[in-house]
Amino acid sequence: MNTTLMWPGKQECVSMAERPTKKCLQPVQEYSVDWDRTQNVYIEGDNLDAMKILRRTHERRIKCIYIDPPYNTGKSLVYKDGFSVHSEWLNMIYPRLILARHLLSDDGAILISIDDNELHRLRLICDEVFGADHHVLTVVVNRASEIASSNTISKHEYMLIYCRDKDCFKVDGMKKYTLSRATVGNSGQTMPVIEFPKGLRCEGVEDGIYYETRRVPGSRENIENLGPIVVKDAKLAENVKLRARWRSSNDMRRFFANNCRPTPAKISGVIEEIYFRGDRFVPYIKKLTFEKIPSLYLENRRGSADLEKLGMGNWFPFPKSIAFLKRYLSYLDLADGEFVLDFFSGSAATAQAVMELNAEDGGMRRFIMIQLPEKLGPGSSAYQAGCRDICHIGQERIRRAAEKIKRETGAEIDYGFKVYRTAEIGAE
């Protein structure tokens, strides 16, 4: 039975999300890079207003949303991270998630980093906003550093993944090939006859005519041929019918009916080849699959190390690791021209991750960053370097990351971004 989370102010959150904004996006060309050609966007302002504006032009057009919202830890961070009660945190995140769903494309997904403090509440409201059936995965993420109390040591946080429509959502991770025997040794397995077409490769089999396959006494995986097996030039020279306890009989039939062209398997992946190995004439199925999204991420590194490489050490607290962001963004089937949105942009690590992915594969993914221009204290490293708010940090990071990526890879990708600021309609 589904559980609905209730808290003071929830109904007003729904009204807040649907209430039209009176603001627009005002161009800020002096902070932008390559204004005339770039397709990337950086928005300064409250993300609630910014997403309402985006809804006019990008509703159901955003393929991927990644956010690292305030964790409600009780410490003072960006976006007032440290709400005194859970209801205040829920009132902050709930309307923004409603708007996020409006922006997601049918095949899109949202990835949300979170820790123990609000994990179960976030799961409940995501079930409500996106639908419990559209929960893709909860990822356990190894922390780059431990958080200790008098009794415990916390070594991990989480990332929730939800999609808009599970029927449209698909994973496009790193390609890999699997090789499996087409026979099984289950005693209760049926033994249908399959006709194998000529032309199949015969690995480790000498040319000749085989009237009987070699069999291993007592094996349940022996294969019976119902006619001579003719091998010529290391290929099957004539069609032959074989009987055995087949592992994937329907998949093999579909592959053969498709003239041995790449054919989707019933469970997952694409069958690219079926061939015989050895004089037992055991068929092997070569299948192309994609690495599935793992629920455990152990390789997390300090995100601050990525900033240090850009000469921005200590400019921003707890930035996300670029390697972590690239890993999980790469699982999504992001085509050229599709958008990655981060509406808690912070130091703009997501923008750097998108550019690095594009440089690696020549892609043309686009990013949209949204960040409240939270003022910096005069004593901070970023302030002393010339930044006056969080947006200045993010924009400077994108500039420096772009220079570093281009210098190291020479990739011809979109390194620019257009800066906009939310402003009252009619304001100059």
Short structural description:
Helices cover 26% and strands 27% of the residues.
Report what the structure shows.
The chain is α/β, with parallel strands linked by helices. The chain has two domains: 284 residues, Rossmann fold (3-Layer(aba) Sandwich), CATH 3.40.50.150; 116 residues, no CATH class. It has a ten-stranded mixed sheet with strand order 1-21-2-20-19-3-4-6-5-18, sandwiched between helices. Strands 7, 9, 15, 16 and 17 form a five-stranded mixed sheet that branches. β15 and β16 form a beta hairpin. α7 packs across α8. The longest helix is centred in the C-terminal third of the chain and has 20 residues. The chain is elongated, with a radius of gyration of 28 Å.
Quaternary: single chain
Question: What structural category characterises the helix and strand content?
Answer: alpha/beta
CATH topology of the largest domain: Rossmann fold
Count of individual beta strands: 21
User: Based on CA inertia axes, which overall geometry fits?
Assistant: elongated
Q: Cα distance, first to last residue? A: 52 Å
CATH architecture of the largest domain: 3-Layer(aba) Sandwich
Q: Quick one: CATH class of the largest domain?
A: Alpha Beta
Question: What's the rounded overall pLDDT mean?
Answer: 93
Number of helical elements: 10
Q: Over the alpha carbons, how many angstroms does the gyration radius reach?
A: 28 Å
Bin the helical content.
Answer: 25-40%
**CATH H level, superfamily name of the largest domain:** Vaccinia Virus protein VP39
Low-confidence stretches: 76-82
